[in-house]
Specification:
The protein is built from 5 helices and 19 strands. The protein has 2 domains: about 130 residues, Elongation Factor Tu (Ef-tu), domain 3, CATH 2.40.30.200; about 150 residues, no CATH class. It is about 15% helix and about 35% strand. It is mostly beta strands. The strands form 4 sheets. Strands 1, 2, 3, 6, 7, 8, 9, 10 and 19 form a 9-stranded antiparallel β-sheet that branches. A 4-stranded antiparallel β-sheet has the order 11-18-13-16, with no helix packed on it. Strands 12-17-14-15 form a 4-stranded antiparallel β-sheet, with no helix packed on it.
Length: about 290
């Protein structure tokens, strides 16, 4: 007896209809779209499959055999079949399955009547889904919330589908990625040429660019005594005299363990992000995989 559950639009088919799907399921792999142009009178051909920046995919076909967890009469079978047809036959819905519990699929459902309903001990209904090529991580949209005063590198993981994150800042900020640099205004922005690729992507953002503008040569004609009179702290000299947010103190983390901040940068702990900070940056995007 199978024990695989399917949740369609949040409804567990076992709780609603007493159905589980068998191990003979097929989640499918989407076929990629290949565009090849022949060269008349020349050798080979021109492959335009990645003309838009990445290869595209067709929908995937998924198949499930839904088994009733108990013996039912012919009348009960027809009743359940009608209820299920009302619920999702011909409809495009979101769903997830316990054999791939971290992702949500979306597709159009097609029910097929079982020819074994009278002979089988546990009759089943066949289900076919014309599904989108990409599945979406349940935690999507992924949101990152950081204090980027003075500049910080943030690691943004991405699935197989390329994506452009929405970046929200409260004042003019600088973003760098793969050698390119952009200045974005206050508010939410999507940078046209900033595409996250499959894997880990390091994006630099500085919501207070002037913090790191000053270099030693800027003070070449000044004495240390002058700097001492002008700036109380090195951080003030680094920022050109601008007032920085008061730093956290170590006692703020006295009840925490070091392991809980293993991958956090000291700058993030020194100036932690808060709702009212003008140096806070938000990143948000959907994580989609194949």
């Amino acid at each position: 007896m199978p024990y695989n559950h399917m949740y369609v639009n949040g409804v567990d088919l076992y709780d609603e209809y007493g159905l589980l799907f068998g191990d003979d399921y097929d989640l499918g792999i989407p076929e990629y779209k290949e565009y090849v142009v022949d060269i008349p009178g020349g050798n080979g051909s021109i492959d335009l499959s990645e003309f838009s920046g990445d290869v595209s995919y067709k929908n995937r076909t998924q198949k499930f055999n839904l088994y009733f967890a108990k013996q039912i009469s012919q009348r009960e079978y027809e009743t359940y079949k009608t209820k299920m047809a009302r619920f999702f036959h011909g409809r495009k819905l979101s769903y997830w399955v316990t054999v791939d519990p971290n992702f949500i699929y979306t597709g159009r459902f097609k029910l097929t009547d079982s020819t074994e309903r009278t002979e089988a001990k546990y009759p089943h209904i066949s289900l076919e889904v014309n599904a989108n090529p990409f599945k979406v991580l349940k935690e999507s949209p992924i949101t990152w919330y950081i204090n980027a005063a003075g500049g910080i590198l943030i690691d943004l993981p991405c699935g197989r589908k390329r994506t452009r994150p929405t970046i929200e800042v409260k004042q003019e900020s600088v973003v760098n990625f793969n050698g390119d640099s952009w200045t974005i205004p206050a508010g939410a922005s999507i940078i046209r040429d900033l595409w996250l690729e499959c894997g880990n992507n390091q994006v630099y953002i500085n919501t207070l660019p002037y913090i790191s503008n000053k270099v030693m040569s800027d003070y070449a004609d000044d004495s240390l005594a002058y700097l001492q009179e002008t700036y109380e702290y090195m951080s003030n000299a680094a920022s050109g005299g601008e007032v920085l947010k008061e730093s956290s103190v170590i006692s703020d983390y006295a009840n925490e363990t070091l392991s809980s901040y293993e991958y956090r940068k000291l700058l993030e702990l020194t100036y932690p992000a808060t709702e009212d900070m003008t140096t806070t940056a938000y990143f948000e995007y959907d994580y989609e995989d194949i």
